[in-house]
């Protein structure tokens, strides 16, 4: 999949905040859940997971959103997309599973899994078995959801592109063909039309504010994303997954709306320039919406069905603001953006570190700050090491292999187009 040229350091800063919020949330859970300091917001730090989902939708869906508004753009090849996504998540995930087993081996910890059930973790099936939920490395429930999203997003992209490609001209042609108009009937030429005034080209290096294709391309994609979100809400209403469980949510339909709001945000801004004032309004409105949701001030009807979707809408607005040149500088601060690049490792490493400290009696039970330090620093160091020794080398090697395979692929033969000439009756 091609790299996203519109990705900015502020988006990596958001990733860092999401990962650090989840680390602090879990440290709070294992420190007796004190209410001092942030109060109820210690529990709401778990909103870092919906932020990750929204960011994934915003970034992963970029090629399909671009293809809907740019005639020259094409969706990624399925094989290349699948290879890069698999290399991105699986090797480090498997490594952290091995380390988690080694840290808990021989301790008798109740979260340890050493038997055949490990196969379920290897294939990311822990969300589909009650014996695996909340075991070994509990936060990986969201990784199983993320992997399902990676598998489904090409299908959503194809459906959305088909919905976006219904143009008025094509629709008229289909209607004409359906009415049985014969192509051999002479057609009188129309009266000459005055040429239109020349259109001033856009400034070089600056995309058009309206987009390269009609707004119908965006409307078709948005309609599909709204429909998918509605199906997710219907799924939650039908299955009753809103009840408390060892994991927050278990399968993709329960949280698909969080991905879709990020995808919809990408569709709306792709190929457009977001003015500075609008970026600031979106940032303030997004933060306000997340705060209102976390503090319970929204009082949205059917809150059990919507879950964290209102916060997801706020996160989508924040993602748009952070993808512009006017993103908050503090989020683009280099150390924070660097932690964001390593955020996947921070997310995967922190819980094995936490459980290892607990299993060996090294985890404080009533000191939140000490727990954050003892868990956070080793997790960050392990994430930095795995980022440079595992993630990046494997991604670079995979890209080189895919590039060589593309260069060896023979170019498709060009077939001449068949042109049909209609007989024209000469004018009187």
Q: What descriptive keywords fit this protein?
A:
mainly alpha; 0% strand; 16 helices; 428 residues; 61% helix; disordered N terminus
Q: Could you describe the largest sheet, including whether it forms a barrel? A: none
- The termini sit apart by 58 Å
SSE order: HHHHHHHHHHHHHHHH
Unreliable runs: 1-6, 167-187, 195-215, 242-249
Question: How large is the count of helical segments?
Answer: 16
Structural class: mainly alpha
Rg over C-alpha atoms, rounded to the nearest angstrom:
26 Å
How would you characterize this protein structure?
The structure is a single chain. The chain has 428 residues and is mainly alpha-helical. The protein has one domain (9-167, 209-407). Helices cover 61% and strands 0% of the residues. The protein has 16 helices and no strands. The protein has helices spanning 9-29, 41-44, 48-60, 62-69, 78-104, 118-122, 141-164, 168-178, 215-239, 252-269, 276-294, 303-306, 309-322, 334-341, 343-359, 368-408. Helix 9 packs antiparallel against helix 10, helix 11 (276-294) runs antiparallel to helix 13 (309-322) and helix 15 packs across helix 16 (368-408). The longest helix has 41 residues, at 368-408. The protein is globular. The N and C termini lie far apart (58 Å).
Task: Give a short synopsis of this structure.
α1 (9-29) packs across α14 (334-341), α1 (9-29) packs parallel to α15 and α15 (343-359) crosses α16.
Structural topology:
Blueprint: H1 9-29, H2 41-44, H3 48-60, H4 62-69, H5 78-104, H6 118-122, H7 141-164, H8 168-178, H9 215-239, H10 252-269, H11 276-294, H12 303-306, H13 309-322, H14 334-341, H15 343-359, H16 368-408
